[in-house]
Give the backbone structure.
Amino acid sequence: MAHDAPLSPLAPKGFPDMPAVEGVRFAAGAAGIRYKGRTDVMLALMDKGTTVAGVFTKSKCPSAPVDWCRAKIKSGKARALLVNSGNANAFTGKKGADAVKLAAKLAAAGAGAKESEIFMASTGVIGEPLDASKFDGVIAKLAAAARPDAWLDAARAIMTTDTFPKVATATAEIGGVAVRISGMAKGAGMIAPDMATMLSFVFTDAPIGADALQAMLSKSVQGSFNAITVDSDTSTSDTLLLFATGAAAKRGAPKIEAAGDRRLASFRKALDAVLLDLAHQVVRDGEGARKFVGVEVTGADSAKAAKRIALAIANSPLVKTAVAGEDANWGRVVMAVGKAGEKAERDKLAIWFGDVRVAHKGLRDPAYDEAAASAVMKRQEIDIRVDLGLGAGAAKVWTCDLTKEYVAINGDYRS
Amino acid sequence: MAHDAPLSPLAPKGFPDMPAVEGVRFAAGAAGIRYKGRTDVMLALMDKGTTVAGVFTKSKCPSAPVDWCRAKIKSGKARALLVNSGNANAFTGKKGADAVKLAAKLAAAGAGAKESEIFMASTGVIGEPLDASKFDGVIAKLAAAARPDAWLDAARAIMTTDTFPKVATATAEIGGVAVRISGMAKGAGMIAPDMATMLSFVFTDAPIGADALQAMLSKSVQGSFNAITVDSDTSTSDTLLLFATGAAAKRGAPKIEAAGDRRLASFRKALDAVLLDLAHQVVRDGEGARKFVGVEVTGADSAKAAKRIALAIANSPLVKTAVAGEDANWGRVVMAVGKAGEKAERDKLAIWFGDVRVAHKGLRDPAYDEAAASAVMKRQEIDIRVDLGLGAGAAKVWTCDLTKEYVAINGDYRS
């Protein structure tokens, strides 16, 4: 089932050192959900007092664990996170809701916590019932084995068609006390073959209230996980959870309840960095990807218009195949700007590939050097920039190219 | 430049007999715009009194000929149509507008008409200036050679990466008098490689006023050209023009000015049939297409919601690659329904591939036979149907599969 793709050529050269986040412990195990010979379940245990914030898929057909998390996150309290790969528990109706309840019961017993403090995510096949009783045999063992440093084990257990585990970390200070933000993600396409989901879980020892955490997360996600696209397909299961154990309070960090508190400046910056790093890693593991592409739009009527235009470019199959073909085809960029539906004036438009301006004032740039543009397109990382010349609205998004391998991964695996 | 792709396996088995439409004559020639060894310019001459209606791209960066046609169509009067392939005259700024003016002047002289009665379309490379002086040498010859039966010559001259010329015809009656509706189209993707455009030109001898013509065309296009997608990319140049010469008035057909006139019932039906036939042919020539896919959504909140959901399915790269892989992957259909943003209740959803119901009431259909579903997916023509179980809103759209050949056509040709 899992596609044995070679490591993405865009993978980071190595993993960062991932020290413990005080108040969190992890373990991974094999529950036999679907895969053979690999781990497929991850349990994270968090100390009492942990707060939580989350962002979920906008799909109108969300998975059962997404429904569960949306209901439970209102309390802002968390003690454990249970994640499985191999089955998304999506489009599974009442059976799916029952499976989530059973899993919560088992995890609560294992963690010594209330069911309402259990958070969950599932990724894998859509439409197949998830046999949650399979968790029964492993949860007690995982709870006993959980360690603060098992980041990569945890990140590997939640992979589906990912070709590498995705982790990132940063430090910040609150009231002069160092705090840590570390996280993991999985995803290799908005949806991997027959699989669903982009999942990310981020942990900090900072003592921050749930409301402040939620406000910061909702804002930070706009420029990171909500600014990437592999294939424009939104999963039924996208879940991003941010847990704050508050353990740094013992070291003197002040407890902060308001997102606007100035003492959060450093934390906010570090959170942005961790989310952006993880989001970029998802694009770098995009199915069949050979090129990592930044799309920046400036001079738009508004930031919203800029983002819509940037996503129209980043989602265009014709732009993405041109990048795959190392073709500085700015006519397709013009097309994508035009189709976005936002205000654009042809005669004010300028387009760059890397630092080569290829179009200017509604015309091919007279100074445009095709050889220089071709050299840019041969790079592994390519920046496309469009200036609309209308206002101050700007946005940046990231995507990958569309290759024959994408079609093979998504079209060949059953035939 | 032009991609020598083999004939699409989805091409119609032959061409229909295309008799003359009284009042219209065609000729095709080679102006050397870009291609060697093939025709690249088409001139249609229409009798005095011809009315015209049009529908154009929604792109915010339209081509120069689209700007021209939008301005001239207000008068509702037409005498000639000049179309070239090889250059889209898009993103060409003031030079592009000047080229259109020169072309109109040349065509007006050749047709013995006013410049304001000349309609134009261009399809090909974006961003390269169009040298309209190249029309100078050919227009007089084309005007002299124009014949009522040169349909296929005309349809071939406007092709870019199309693998076959596209024509369709139907008859209707108005006030008991037979009238004819015949047309041509080109397009093989919303945009073909480095090329722009879906173009279609339809002609009738019915005596119908421009306002009535426009109302009927705008309505008919919703279920035909606005209900197809190859790759979700909107061209800068999409143009559909409907010309009515009125020649049937000599045979006693009444002149009709109001779109609501009951005597137009037969005409309206025939117009729908011709537009749908041409639109289907564009999908059948979709770049790299191997499967012709109908997507029908019923039971939605409204017709608009149904169409948005149908297009979300038809544009999903993951649904389209699954069809290419002959995989009855209804989980991806659920995903696409969910991402459309319209109301959907998981537990009321049903999905069919052909006549095989694969999902029902938010669950895999208990009676679902995987072998039967696989047999459906092996067909060349596949119907996907989704019932939302909410209301009476329904829509149908058409698309093709997403294959490695699509990526090759759009990504390999310059590398």
In short: Chain B touches chain A through 73 residues (CB under 8 Å). The mean pLDDT of chain B is 90. Residues 292-411 of chain B form a domain with the Ubiquitin-like (UB roll) fold (CATH 3.10.20.340). The first helix of chain B runs from residue 64 to 72.
